Amino acid sequence: MDEETGCVKAIVNASALTALRTAAGSVLATRSLLSKPPTSLVAFGAGKQIEAHVDLHIRAFPSIKRFVIINRSRNMRLENLLSELRRSHPHVTIEGLASDDTTNVRSAVSHASIICTATSSTHPLFPSEWVAPGTHLNLVGSFKPGMVEVDCDLIKRAGTIVVDSAEACAVEAGELIASGLRAEDMIEIGRLVGDRQGELGEIQMTKGDVTVFKSVGIGLQDVAIARYVVSKAESLAVGTVVENFHV
Asked: What is the pTM of this model?
């Protein structure tokens, strides 16, 4: 929508953009919270969110040499995703696992530098004890109180939780609600980045032996990235112009 007239300015297929902006937020959190260059990434799920998360993390961190994608089963969706990522990143070792392959899933989780989850699970995907100290986690799947991807023990290990929106996470993020966290117990990623750029007063964070970024999604981010894409398309003369759209 045009910010001055309220008229429709563009129609954009936002599914890919939503995955991209969510993954970009996770990369920002990983850069801000991970203490050393990552070498391995484990991802739970096989949808567009995981595709974007894996792709952007590999591009952002050349030190990543191995990643494992864990899905409920070794289905065609997983196999197609693995094939696509192998074509895009031939220098990285890529593996797919079914979630019931407990021995290998536990090994992958315990050796991960970064863990990304994007599922609709209603129970923890793995126990806290599998996660090694120093690991960073991006949790982007749950968006209702009854949805959880990790257990309360893991949330408590993290100290201060970094989120996209404290207000939204306090009522939508199942893991944080189950752990008894309130909005004032969380730090928003915008505040964290602003603090490190010297734009805000120093913020206090309780340190744990892992770090966690939790995102439930903010509609304003979709609007911002859509506006950028439309502006870029106009400058490149890309897309279809519909004349007299408002007549």
From this structure: 0.88
